[in-house]
Structures are given as C-alpha cells and as structure tokens.
Design brief:
Length: 191
Amino acid sequence: MTGAWRPRRMTSGASVRERGLAQAPARYFERLSGKVVSAFRDLVQDRGPVDLGRFEDVLRDAIDQRMGFAKGLLDSAKAMPTGSATTARNVISRSYYAMYHAGRAVQFAFSRADIDDHQAVASKLPDDFPESAHWRDRLKFWRIKRDKADYEPWIEPTDSFELLQPAALREASRFIEQCQSYLRERGMTNV
C-alpha cells in the first residue's frame, strides 16, 4: 500500500512495532531533531518498551533530579560560612543557581522543553505559578547579582554581597519550596 506507515528497522534489528512502541505516523517523528531521536532511542534501549505511563515516569524522574540538584545547590550555599566577601559571592551564586535549576524543573514540567537560557527560565515561568510576576523579577534580579558576584572583581556600594547573602538564601529557599509545591499539586513529581 503506497503511503502507508511502515516501521523502520532499528539497529537491534527489531522494528518499532516489535519493540512495543505505539504505532505512529511518520509525520510525528519527522520533526524531531537528531538529538531527540537519539535520546528516545537511548531511553528505549535503557528501559525497554516505553508506554505513555512509563514515559511520564521518566519525565517525572528528570524533574525530580533537577529539583534534587537545585536543593543540593541551596544546601551547599547554606553550609558556607559567613563573614567574607568571597564567601558571600559564592552564596549568592549557589543560591541563584538553586533558583535557576528549580525554575528549569518547573519549565520542563510545564512545557516539556528543557530551557537552559537564563533569561528564558525567568521569563517563561507558567502564568499559574504562584506569584509568577514577582518570581520573574526576582530571578532576573538574582541573575544580575550572580553575574556580578562571579565575574566582577570590584564591588559597587549597592552590591554589598555580605548584606545580600541572607536575602539570597531566604529567597532561594522560598522559591524552591514554591516550585516543589507547584509540581506536587500537578502530579509532576515522584517525591
């Protein structure tokens, strides 16, 4: 039959149908990048046939790992001693990155796209995220402070990192808690 969808052979010799994957018209796959196809092939090779429920579990695992990474960064920031400008810079940097990765987890859960652009992570928080406009502004604020903390050897009077350190920890903690709650309420996390 002309134009009918036929499963292509995979490297293992088994067709898509034989591997237990849902039959789908080629049009669904033709728009996928090589990177996505490779990732999907790796998933199937690693976990075996993947149905929708199992695929959703894999996505939740990715979200959980990103949130775990965010929490680890925040824990590392909290464990740093206070008192020096260098330590305060590190706390601000780790606190920002904790927020950034938590925001990436939410963005991935919401859009199923892993957005790693710092500005996009802040600007594309879902509208139904609690205090989304506030957090968009705060992520932008802390990204600018992190840039200064990481890259500028001089300190402007308005950038007293030692004074910003407690606020960075407090806001990162609050943002991560809100991200975790948002994900839990929507069933997008396994923890």
